[in-house]
Each structure stands twice: as C-alpha cells, then as structure tokens.
Amino acid sequence: MGPELRNSFVVEGEPMNDKDLKSEASKTDKRKQSLYFPESMLQEIKEEAARLDRSLSWVVQRAWKLARLEIKKLPSVNDVADDEDTGD
C-alpha cells in the first residue's frame, strides 16, 4: 500500500440532520471506524465538506445513502467467481 492510500479520518456515528435524528438514532453506532481513501479523494471530500459547511462524516454518510442502491446492483465476489467456474 503506497503512502497516498494511508490517509484516513475517523467516522463517528453522527446523524445526518435533525429529521434523520429520530429514525437513525437507534441505528447509529457510536464506535469509531477508520476509513482509508486515496489522497485525492480525501481532498475532494474535504473540499465538499467545507463548501457545504458539513463534517467529513456527514459527506461520506450522505454519499453512501445516495449511492447504496447502485452499489447493491454490483455483483458480489462470489457471483463473479461462480461465473468463472462455470465458464459463463
């Protein structure tokens, strides 16, 4: 892993906004988690967070909520491996 991939920030389970507070409060995990991003991606996230006057954590949480349905459409590693095994 090169030095450009060693940048991280700690994400704490924080609600996205007051409206989400009620629905997300029971799901919010207060443990900290380190996430690693390429330097250029982390810089972009920081710039967007500053532009939106939001935390890095909020930007990543919002991005996940917007992208999750698309990500769920991606085949799992097992699905890809199964296709290779059968020659499909």
Radius of gyration: 17 Å
Please work out how many helical segments DSSP would assign: 4
Question: Helix fraction?
Answer: 40-55%
Largest sheet: 2 strands, antiparallel
Order of helices and strands: EHEHHH
Task: Note the overall shape.
Answer: elongated
Number of strands: 2
Estimated share of beta-strand residues: 5-15%
Kindly, what is the distance between the CA atoms of the first and last residues, rounded to a whole number of angstroms? 33 Å
Q: If you had to describe this structure to a student in words, what would you say it looks like?
A:
A two-stranded antiparallel ribbon has the order 1-2. It is elongated. The protein has a domain of 59 residues. It has 88 residues and is mainly alpha-helical. Helices cover 55% and strands 11% of the residues.
Give me some keywords for this one.
mainly alpha; two-stranded antiparallel sheet; about 55% helix; about 90 residues
What's this entry about, in short?
With 88 residues, this protein is mainly alpha-helical. It has helices at residues 18-24, 39-52, 56-72, 77-86; strands at 7-11, 33-37.
Tell me the layout of helices and strands.
Layout: E1 7-11, H1 18-24, E2 33-37, H2 39-52, H3 56-72, H4 77-86
Antiparallel strand pairs: 1-2
Helix pairs in contact: 2-3
